[in-house]
Amino acid sequence: MTINSMTGFARASGSLEGVGWLWEVKSVNGRGLEVRCRLPSGFDYLEDKLRKAVKARFERGNINLHLQLESRTAGVAYRVNQDFLEELLTLAGNYVEDGQARRPRMDGMLGLRGVIEPKEDPAADVDAETFAAALLTSAEELINSLEQARGEEGAQLHPVLLAQLDEIETLVGRASEITKSWPERTRAKIKAQMALILEAAELEEGRLEQELALLTTKADISEEIDRLTGHVAATRELLEGSTKGGVGRRLDFICQEFNREANTLCSKAHDRDLTQIGLDLKVLVDKMREQVQNIE
Which part of the chain is the Endoribonuclease YicC-like C-terminal domain (predicted)? Predict the structure, then answer.
């Protein structure tokens, strides 16, 4: 199975009738799916379609889309501000009539700041429907590229997670081997301790067996070993199986369960080797969970 990361970056560009565009998209980790669009003025109507296209492809991640437009034809990126020019001409005419100034030349008026200004919409002279269709087609290519980027990063995480899972499985196996001799080891240890405490005092054999059984039950970790083994199998099925859709949330939940069992193992362990296994498990689970946070 291929797992997908939630992080990625992609670009797509194109042009139509002298107007060029550049799409950029960035995706980072997120608990759910959140889409933000930064579009030029007048192109907000594309946002709904963009959101639907993204949600059809991805389940998790904070995704930011940005569209930038530019004119690629000389002379079409500027316009004359007619209203401002008329206002200036009227004002100048008043001074001319009063004899306070000479009639202004047009080339001088056009040279004034604000009379000639950049067009706010480089695509103003392009058919809106045709241009929107071209932008959405390009956006679809952008989303394809992002999906590929997230898949490639996920493919790099896959072997890392499997290696960490193998280490966890090895530790669980070692803990299981220790538990096989646990009753006898516990019995011998408790008897030795009680012999030192009681010395010559007499104690009923039945009472001793009851205490040994109680202590052995409290220290029994067979259920924890069984659950850890089950979690290893479930994780391997998610990573190597044919599960459809995102697996990040499920893997994160399993990591929480791994950590819970590792904590119980440490609290129950009265053996140095078993305690060390529990601590090693916690370290590995933390490392795995860091990687899982990147998975969709």
Answer: 178-296
Residue 88, domain member (yes or no): yes
At 90 the pLDDT is: 83
Query: pLDDT per residue over 162-174, tens digit each?
Result: 999 999 999 999 9
Low-confidence ranges of the chain (pLDDT < 70): 1, 72-79, 117-125, 182-191, 193-219, 242-245
Q: Domain range spanning residue 169?
A: 155-292
3 state SS for the chain: CCCCECCEEEEEEEEECCEEEEEEEEEECCCCEEEEEECCCCCHHHHHHHHHHHHCCCCCEEEEEEEEEEECCCCCCEEECHHHHHHHHHHHHHHHHCCCCCCCCHHHHHCCECCEEECCCCCCCCCHHHHHHHHHHHHHHHHHHHHHHHHHHHHHHHHHHHHHHHHHHHHHHHHHHHHHCHHHHHHHHHHHHHHHHHCCCCCCHHHHHHHHHHHHHHCCCHHHHHHHHHHHHHHHHHHHCCCCCCCHHHHHHHHHHHHHHHHHHHHHCCCHHHHHHHHHHHHHHHHHHHHHCCEC
Task: Specify the residue for token string 């096989």.
Answer: 180
Assessment of whether the complete model's pTM goes beyond 0.85: no
How confident is the model at residue 39, as a pLDDT?
94
Whether residue 184 is contained in a domain is answered as yes
How many domains does the chain contain in total?
3
Residue 3 lies in a domain: no
- Both 95 and 197 in one domain: the answer is no
